[in-house]
Every structure is written in C-alpha cells, then in structure tokens.
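> example.struct
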C-alpha cells in the first residue's frame, strides 16, 4: 500500500515525526535526535509529554521551533471531577514552566483571546472560556486579564490574525494567550488532552482550514497557545473501533477453554492489551493482522473521495467544554496570582 500522510492533527505527539504508536526503541532514538528532545512523565493520572524542537527539528518533523507540552488522562470522563482537578494542577505547573523566563508584574497587561465559533459547539472552547473568565473577573477588585473572543473570519469577514495584531499594537500586552479547539488523530484523545505551546497557533490547521499564523513573529510579543482536541476524522474513529473489535474477539478466542475465561464478566478488552491477532485471521482475513496505522490508511484512502470528509465529536461535547472552560479559566487566574506574587 502506498504510504500517504492523511494525518490531520494539531497535537505534537501525533505528528508524523513523534507518533504515539512508535516502538520504545523509536521513542528512545527520538529522545537523542539533535533537533527534537522529548520527555515523558506522569503526575498522578496525568500523562505528560514535553517536546522541545529546535531549528533542525523543525525541518525533521515539520513543526515550528519551540516547546510543546501535552497533558492527558486517557480514562477521563466528563463527570470525573478528580481527574479535572489533577489536570488543572498539572496545567498550572506547566504554565509556570513555560513562562519561567517571562517577568510579569501587577502592572503587566496579559491579553487572552478565545478563538472559535460560539455557534458551533466543538469549536467553542475559546469563547466559552472567555465567558467563564469574564464571570470570574467581575468578582475581583482588579482585573487580571484583558479578555476577548473575536469570532471567526466567516463571521467577521476579517482575518483573525490581523485583528489580534491590531489589538496587540493598541494594548501592548506583555503576553498573549490564545485558547482554541484542536483536532486529534486518536479517538482516545478526544476531550481528554490539553496542549500548550509557546509557538503560537495556526487557526483551523487541524481540519484543513488554514488561516494566518498567530505567533510572536507576527505580533511582536510572546504568544502562548492552549488547545483542547474536540474533533477527530470519521475514518480514524472507524479504524479505532474495528481495532478494538478485533482485539476483543482475539482475546476471547485466546481465553477459550482456560479457567480464567470463566471469570470474564465483560466483552471489553483494553486497546493496549497484548493479544494475538492471528487468532481472528481465519474469520476476517489477513487485514485483521495489519498494524493499526495501515488500517487507518486504508479507510482514509477509501473515504478521501467522499464529497464531505466528516469530522466527529463526542455527543456530550457541550458538557465537556463547560468543564474545560471552567478549568482553563481557574488555572489561568491561579497561575497569574502565583506568578505576580513571586
């Protein structure tokens, strides 16, 4: 099968050069590449991936030079308050880490921009967060941030990057923070990951609707982007569901006749559990033993001729975004309070 990069993602650890599905040997090699340095760690339930890309690495993985940090809880649910609390704790920690060299005082102006279309729920995390922060800020004696949600180019007829540039020139902030929805190429990452980076952002990049860059090079001030993946392409979702089905059936076949098989109370088999997929080859054919990436490639090629390349979002995405809007707002207020007091 001819290898074609159909991958649409905004997450650094899902890009062609830093894929999550790499073998341990590949990951170890990446850690020692001159252009890309990657560190993986865990804080409570939060899985943390920190990727630093220099000029050489920018050429290797086609990602802009800078620091990228992803925080993820694979088992997070929309009602998991304990998990959201742990995510918030990690986010505040890495906001400090990302801005450790930036001096911010009580007089510093920080502009927070919430990108996205408020009328389209999966794209509304930016405006939702600005609304939550407005509510919080109205209860304070002194405002901590300058908050604005500019809408999208389709609503305003004006390029969002140009609008923010003009706003920055007028306000002259010490820091611009951009909040936006992202795309992922892994269904398990939907609404369970936060990515922050000092490289800025290309609005719409993950869904193929590229707009002008919003970055330090464009605005002339440091830019931090915070994103939540809320959409995934339909072929990815189909391939992941089939992968789970194959693994579940193979696991059942392996357990047949074993005493442990009688203890099973569910048909579900975790995706990362090691199973022998050759067990299902007589049922489904050779493609059942293909690597997950090859099956994704097959579905992407089949669906690429479809007039509408569908993007999928969780049905409870409105509740997810309400949770994240509160989490991001609270994290930013706690971070700035701690930053200004040091």
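> example.seq
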């Amino acid at each position: 099968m001819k290898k074609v990069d159909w991958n649409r993602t905004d997450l650094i650890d899902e890009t062609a050069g830093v894929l999550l599905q790499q073998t341990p040997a590949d990951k170890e090699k990446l850690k020692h590449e001159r252009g890309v340095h990657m560190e993986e760690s865990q804080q409570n339930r939060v899985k943390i991936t920190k990727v630093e890309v220099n000029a050489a690495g920018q050429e290797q993985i086609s990602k802009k030079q800078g620091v990228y940090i992803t925080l993820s809880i694979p088992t997070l649910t929309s009602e998991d308050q304990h998990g959201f609390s742990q995510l918030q704790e990690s986010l505040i920690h890495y906001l400090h880490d990302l801005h450790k060299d930036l001096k911010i005082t009580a007089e510093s102006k920080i502009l927070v921009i919430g990108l996205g279309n408020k009328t389209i729920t999966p794209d509304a995390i930016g405006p939702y967060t600005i609304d939550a922060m407005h509510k919080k800020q109205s209860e304070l004696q002194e405002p901590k941030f300058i908050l604005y949600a500019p809408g999208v180019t389709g609503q305003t007829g004006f390029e969002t990057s140009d609008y923010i540039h003009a706003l920055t020139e007028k306000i002259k902030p010490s820091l611009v923070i951009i909040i936006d929805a992202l795309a992922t190429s892994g269904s398990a990452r939907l609404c369970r990951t936060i990515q922050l980076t000092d490289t800025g952002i290309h609005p719409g990049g993950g869904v193929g609707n590229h707009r002008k860059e919003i970055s330090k090079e464009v605005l002339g001030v440091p830019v931090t982007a915070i994103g939540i993946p809320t959409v995934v392409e339909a072929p990815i979702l189909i391939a992941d569901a089939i992968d789970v089905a194959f693994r579940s059936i193979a696991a059942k076949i392996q357990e047949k006749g074993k005493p442990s098989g009688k203890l099973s109370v569910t048909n579900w088999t975790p995706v990362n559990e090691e199973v022998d997929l050759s067990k299902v080859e007589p049922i489904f054919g050779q493609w059942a033993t293909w690597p997950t990436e090859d099956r994704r490639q097959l579905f992407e090629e089949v669906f690429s001729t479809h007039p509408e390349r569908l993007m999928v979002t969780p049905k409870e995405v409105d509740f997810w975004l309400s949770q994240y809007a509160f989490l991001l707002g609270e994290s930013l207020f706690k971070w700035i309070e701690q930053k200004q007091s040091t």
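> remarks
The chain has two domains: 12-232+313-340, 236-311.
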